């Protein structure tokens, strides 16, 4: 049985929102944040957005106070831009720093969709 595309997109969006909501990343301006987040999800694959959110979150833990809101998303967007334009073919397309186990511990989400998609996307990119 094939899952409808719209249902898949809704699941992907709910995963991203789970990360955002779990760490109160919206900040004081939820509407601009939501708009920016949706824009990122239109531009980049959701699994890469999930990973970037977590990577930036981990980096932000060292800052007091931790950035939230659109400033947080600006840093996420910078990660995404760097990852998508990463040109060294001897390295993974997405040079992530956290493991699948760390991702699951931080988010409470199954890391399989994210890390399988990254491996597949990197392999596809290396074959071309």
From TrEMBL:
Protein known as: Uncharacterized protein
Organism: Oscillatoriales cyanobacterium SpSt-418
Higher taxonomy: Bacteria, Bacillati, Cyanobacteriota, Cyanophyceae, Oscillatoriophycideae
Domain of life: Bacteria
């Amino acid at each position: 049985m094939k899952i409808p595309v719209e249902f898949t997109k809704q699941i992907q969006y709910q995963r991203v929102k789970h990360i955002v909501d779990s760490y109160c990343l919206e900040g004081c301006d939820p509407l601009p944040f939501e708009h920016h987040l949706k824009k990122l999800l239109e531009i980049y694959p959701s699994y890469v957005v999930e990973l970037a959110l977590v990577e930036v979150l981990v980096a932000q833990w060292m800052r007091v106070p931790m950035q939230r809101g659109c400033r947080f998303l600006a840093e996420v967007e910078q990660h995404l831009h760097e990852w998508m334009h990463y040109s060294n073919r001897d390295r993974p397309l997405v040079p992530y720093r956290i493991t699948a186990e760390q991702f699951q511990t931080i988010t409470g989400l199954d890391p399989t969709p994210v890390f399988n998609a990254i491996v597949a996307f990197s392999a596809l990119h290396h074959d071309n």
